Amino acid sequence: MTLPSMIRDRHNKWKDRRVMMVKRDGVYQDLSWSEFYSDVESLSTALVNMGMSVNDRVAIMSNTRFEWAIADSAALTAGGLTVPIYPTLLRNEVIKLLARSRSSILFLESTELIENPLELIDKVAELKQIILIDRSPGDDASIPTLKELAASTEPDRDELDKRLQSLDEDDVATIIFTSGTTGDPKGVQLTHKNLLSNVENILKVVKFNKDDICLSHLPLAHIFERMAGYYSMLYCGATIAYAESIQTVASDLTVVQPTACISVPRIFEKIFAAIENKALESSPLVRGLTFWAIDVAEDVGEMIIDQKPLPLCKKIKHAIADKLVFSKVRAKFGGRIVQFVSGGAPLSPEMAIFFYAAGIPILEGYGLTETSPVIAANTHAHRRVGTVGKPIPGVEVKIAEDGEIITRGDNVFKGYYENEESTNEVLSADGWFHTGDIGEIDSDGYLKITDRKKDLIVTAGGKNIAPQKIENILKFDRFISQVMLHGDKLPFISAVVVPDFEWLASYAKQKGIKYDSIGDLVKNPKIIDLYYRRIDKLQREHHLASYESVKQIVLLDHEFTMDGGEVTPTLKLKRKMITEHYADQLAALYKKD
């Protein structure tokens, strides 16, 4: 089976059933399989009529929306392969990726992302056609829209059948350019077999079905949302409801009332911070109840995760906390959530414990773009806090002698596009992929990620330190938004810290600390002392050794940004760039010592 044949098969089974929910004019409307697939076939035929050949590359640069799925499905049905491009990338980066991938067609959400898009055709030799998803006033009328093409083209099913039959499961279905925390992005080639094997195997342990509604809000340019929130949902017949935007997710949750959602830890961190912030702004009674409930969650959450019966006293406390606080938290998620699936970054144990206790299970998994992506996952049946679960069926995992996680299975990618050297560095002749992550497998088979191999810090004293573990501990503090550890080959560990500016402003107001700008505020000795005290407290609570504890910090007045080259489109830290940007401030910390 290939991806487009799977999609056609599901349409033939479920023609009249709902496949998606789409917000139009502020109201969610149902989209049936027939409506969806009619657009797919028509658009696919339009691509063929434009001269698209089998194995041509079709780029998609758009935010997450149902048209993304239509463009992707249509390109695959025409025998092509898709190249997702993050809508946040700058024009010169887009030109590079279009040229490197040799894309012949570009689906572009709007000219707000790329002004004068027709100029791209002059700059990219293989690019022949641009198709807009949204037309804005003043756009060149010669550029067709996806909707216009789908509405004006009669499907040529005979031709599409031929193209579907010409495809093989080992053909490349997509080239995904990695975020590139170091160096240029590499083009990960994933086959139909890679993706479908991952879909089938994850659905064996994380149960979704035709009665589920999944709210889709993560970037479809990222393999996590694409496999788990798109292909998997089509495969099992669940409904995909598209959030209007990342800013409307909170309100969309209450309207859609999803049963499932694919998300990332940062979302949960923001929700938890909002709960605390609202409590602090409420009456003493509400504030007291909320923080008491958070304490109850901390007390019973791990037992709930481990599926152990609660002693009577804890059971009563949990029931009271659930009625007064947790039920209201669940209502904010629509009231019907069965499971969140979290990936893309480590989920702090504190987050998992709180949300499980609140009746909102978060199933943390682990994977990479090169593995389609899921390698391991916690499930309702088998879950353990602080781990990423057990390897999913069909995926082998073992720990190399140096602690690196290596994996093998049908989900492992074909190789990097036109980059045999990089492919050979990570993929052995017998199919083992070297993830670059350090980890361990416990006696029960649960996988725990320690850090990225290339990110390990070795101090001047020869101590190995895994920065992500400590960064995740520090980010749990409500006053910290982002943090990066520093100290390779140096006598102690320091950190670049980005405050949570809302909490910081609230604290300054409470303490009567006057300031003209955020820049002034982060230089205030009382604020600097606040951060040192809170960091020290967290490090003591988590029993960090002296050599792995942060001794000095640089406190910033702005966030790490993608425009500044400090984070990737998936918000991973570009450590080398951050270190270069704040080299003088970091160097000054060691002169103090």
If you had to describe this structure to a student in words, what would you say it looks like?
The chain has 21 helices and 25 strands. A 9-stranded mixed beta sheet has the order 2-1-10-9-11-12-13-14-15, sandwiched between helices. A 4-stranded parallel beta sheet has the order 4-3-5-6, sandwiched between helices. Helices cover about 40% and strands about 20% of the residues. The mean pLDDT is about 95. Helix 12 (about 285-305) crosses helix 14. The chain is an alpha/beta fold. The longest helix is centred in the middle third of the chain and has 22 residues, at about 285-305.
What's the quick description here?
With about 600 residues, the chain is an alpha/beta fold. It is globular. The model has no long low-confidence stretch (mean pLDDT about 95).
DSSP helix count?
Answer: 21
Query: What is the end-to-end distance?
Result: 63 Å
Give Rg in angstroms.
25 Å
Mean pLDDT: 94
Helix content: 40-55%
Give the secondary structure arrangement, pairings included.
Layout: H1 3-13, E1 18-24, E2 27-32, H2 33-49, E3 57-61, H3 66-77, E4 81-85, H4 91-101, E5 103-108, H5 119-123, E6 129-132, H6 146-152, H7 157-166, E7 172-177, E8 187-191, H8 192-205, E9 213-216, H9 223-236, E10 239-242, H10 249-256, E11 260-263, H11 265-280, H12 284-305, H13 312-332, E12 339-342, H14 349-357, E13 362-367, E14 374-377, E15 390-391, E16 395-399, E17 404-409, E18 415-416, H15 420-426, E19 433-441, E20 447-452, E21 457-458, E22 464-465, H16 467-475, E23 480-486, E24 493-499, H17 501-511, H18 518-523, H19 525-541, E25 550-555, H20 575-581, H21 583-592
Parallel strand pairs: 1-10, 3-4, 3-5, 5-6, 9-10, 9-11, 11-12, 12-13, 24-25
Antiparallel strand pairs: 1-2, 7-8, 8-18, 13-14, 14-15, 16-17, 17-19, 19-20, 21-22, 23-24
Helix pairs in contact: 1-3, 2-3, 2-6, 8-9, 11-12, 12-13, 12-14
